[in-house]
Amino acid sequence: MFKVKDHYYNKAKDEKYLARSIYKLEEIDQRFKVLKSGDFVVDLGYFPGSWAQYTGPKVGPQGRVFGIDIQPINKKLQLPNATLFEKDIFELKGPEDLGSERAFDVVLSDMAPSTTGIKTVDQARSLDLVESVFNLLPILLRPGGNFVIKVFESQDAQNFLKNQKSRFNEVHYLRPKSTRSVSKEFFVIAKGFKA
Ligand SMILES: C[S@@+](CC[C@H](N)C(=O)[O-])C[C@H]1O[C@@H](n2cnc3c(N)ncnc32)[C@H](O)[C@@H]1O
To answer: Is residue 110 in contact with ligand 1, taking CB distance under 6 Å?
Structure first.
């Protein structure tokens, strides 16, 4: 059993972040430099909003964050350069649906499907979601843009990811230090999208 209120939970609370997931994106960005000032970023499955809390200041006043989640909008998340939407990402037809006149510089996805506790079902649901996000990239991500996505470990996921590598200049895998020890998740960090 993991301790629910662990070190990163307490740290996030002390630092007024909405979730402990902030430290995963922070580590990813420090290591792989996915975000920069002025970027337009779409944050898929943003709720409650700790990734947006990290991304908003990082992209600064010239940049923008567009957060989408199926959950009702989190009113506690107030950022001057972020816009939030209550929406299923599969309803998205393009950046213009979110009021962006151009494709995004960065696509972030920390989405997770609801889990059943049955390993094979959960792995398959997770992979469906991951595959669907990869399929959306041509309409969301600009050529040369960066992409971060959470994936649940499975052989099928590994096989799928191997086939996606050629769509980017570089692809990295990372299990951030703040990931709970029981979790099977890792992140794919893909840079330089080849449209
Ligand atoms: C782990 S949470 C994200 C935490 C967030 N990155 C943060 O730092 O606060 C995953 C989110 O994905 C959302 N999600 C799952 N499927 C989705 C879908 N099809 N469209 C939009 N959001 C979805 C869930 O509602 C959930 O809020």
So the answer is: yes
Give the atom of ligand 1 at the shortest distance from the alpha carbon of 88. 20
Residue with CA at minimum distance from ligand 1 atom 18 = 88
Assign domain 21-193 to its CATH architecture. 3-Layer(aba) Sandwich (3.40)
Q: Tokens 């989405």 appear where?
A: 111
| Mean pLDDT score of the chain | 94
Of all protein residues, whose CA lies closest to atom 21 belonging to ligand 1? 69
pTM of the model: 0.95
User: Which tokens is 17 given?
Assistant: 């972040």
Q: How far is CA 154 from the centre of its chain?
A: 19
Residue type, position 125, single letter: R
Instruction: Show me where the domains of the chain are located.
Output: 21-193
Reported as a single tens digit per residue, the pLDDT across 109-128 is 999 988 888 888 888 999 99
